[in-house]
Amino acid sequence: MSQPLDQLNHETLSHVAIGANDLADIRLLLERVKRALAELEMNDVIIRKTSKFYKTPCFPAGAGPDYVNAAVTLSTTLPPTQLLAHLHKIEADFGRERIQRWGVRSLDLDLLSYGDQVLPDVATYECWRALEVEHQKLRAPDQLVLPHPRMQDRAFVLLPLADIAPDWKHPVLGQTVREMLEELPSSAKMGVVPL
Q: Which family does this protein fall into (predicted)?
């Protein structure tokens, strides 16, 4: 099935969170990830901005060694589900195995946003956003939910994102990244430090 003419070659800005548990050679790992992103679909994905690297406590506590987190802004002509499939392929190429929810992750690429789209719909998004922590450990969506339903709760996501997109406005919450970050308690931000 062909795309409508108004959707051909339309670039959308997306944000991706990058994390890894292995602190050894993390800069090299993240540089390799950036190269892998840049090679996607022969320039259907272009990295526009990259945040600083941040050392962060593992999440959830006890899930492995501390993390290094970063974020990138991508410009893409790929639809969101295809972009996510490519992110999962890059994770697998870097040795990521999805064995345990929130387990140790050699590489974690989370699609945080795709323009101002809410997927699959606001009601489904709200259901996942409101899911209690004990259920979050056990359940994962079987479809793409955007924006990431808990990005507003995580300093290790918002601090890198604030480096590259402080004025991006959450399409459901109506807050910018800067505003969401300001609402987090200082205790949540203290453990996230630039490398």
A: Belongs to the HPPK family.
